[in-house]
Sequence to fold (222 residues):
Amino acid sequence: MREAGLAKETVRRYYRATCVEDVLAKARDGRPSILDAHKPYLNERFNAGVSNGSQLFREIRDRGYTGSQAVVLAYLRPLRAAGHAPPPTPAAPKVRTATRWILTHPDRLDTDDTAALKKILDRSPQLAATAAHVAAFAEMLLERHVDQLDAWIAAVEADDQPDLHRFTHGLHRDYHAVRAGLTQPHSSGVVEGNVNRIKTIKRQMYGRANFDLLRKRVLLAR
Fold:
């Protein structure tokens, strides 16, 4: 520690590291870093022989980086100790993106989305089971297979799916309404859609204009 002029914890982390990934700068609490989007570029430039922190800071600042130079220097420090940067790893898809893939009919996903969804499902058996239950429920709704409702609920409740268990509890509470929705041709979807539209307009107009303008927007908005 005295010879390197580094903090004790930094020296300890270097000493115990078995690979370069063990000493890379990481967010302390697991939150994404402001530097994450620029790390592949920094790794590429570092492996190309550009290791000057000030220069790399200026380069990524021109590419949209808004953080400080100190963060960049902290990230480069273990790379200099290792002598090279690890190959960039693909970013994990956002939860919203993965949810959209799961809720979209497989025939409507493009090749890249299909491959990405298969990759994450292969890595997470529990998520794969969730996706299978969701797909089965969607098919039951589209095809109006009310005879499959009880079996689907039983299958979900027998599985280790806490989030879906809350959903099935709601189905039990509104069981007769759910069965009616799977058998009757009528739906309140149009009404609910209009209610949601009016509420959205109301939130947009709150505090900005009087009732007359709000009324016109509700009547004229499509």
Remarks:
- The chain has twelve helices and no strands.
